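User: Teach me something about this protein's shape.
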Amino acid sequence: MCNLGKALVEQGIEQGIEQKNLDLAKMMLKDKEPIDKIVKYTGFATDKLEEMARSMGCCQLET
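Assistant: First, the predicted structure itself:
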């Protein structure tokens, strides 16, 4: 596979992982999981998760 093709495949994989983590974080926020647990499983920063919770209309996050 040429370098461009390999780069495109890797980029697609990274985007898929990012989307999966985003979906996981949203599910966990809806289930009111503790913020530190969501950080552990998704790798997202606390401030990003807090922003997501606000945009979803979720209540206060637990640590």
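Now, about its shape. The mean pLDDT is 89. The CA atoms of residues 46 and 53 lie 10 Å apart. If you'd like, I can walk through any region in more detail.
User: That's plenty for now, thanks!
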